[in-house]
User: Fold this.
Amino acid sequence: MDAIVLGRKDVGEYNQWVVCLSQKYGKQQYLMRGVKKITSKNAAHIEPCSFIDATVVSGKDLDILTTSYLQDSFTLIQQDYVKRLMADTILRIVDLLTISGEDGQVFDVLLSGLYSLSTDSVVSAVRWIDLFMLQLCEAIGIVPVLDRCCVCGKSRREMNTPVLSALHGGVVCRGCVGGVGKSYAPKERLYLLKNEADFHAFMHHHVNFHLPQDIFDWGDIEKWLK
Ligand SMILES: [Zn+2]
Assistant:
């Protein structure tokens, strides 16, 4: 089974839970026995961000990861401090945004995201993650509408003063904003479309708007890098 390791945590002295995202089973947690013994063959490559081929045996109450082969460790990401932080960030986001057993679309987005990250020359880490988030939103069914007004359907070119609205789900003409219920809903916030910072603020708000729990602001990655 092809899987990407999202994270792992200790269970007792020698065992670990490994959180994997696979195309077939979505996000799952597997027990890995004896992983912390130095003789464990599995331990070395079951790292977050590893793309592995795993064999899982279903136990009575839990699934056990028995063997795994490393398919890709994304060396170019591991060797680059900025990219490594970006990869950690998208793994954290994917972990937060997926629930157990969700379908494989997210897996495809994450795997192609990691492959692109290893080869892309990144100008802005935030911008890169924003664009990754667009694809992730599409995979989980909350993609914002960006090419036309969500209310009147006018194309972006025909729109006067387009703004971004999480409540409406994407781009809206300034004049169309009041069209839904006139007064703003409590969570409504409008973003102009002047620059990348506006787009980032919208994307972060959009994701928070659609999820039951708040997600950290990946725009802070610039601060973490300092
Ligand atoms: Zn409109």
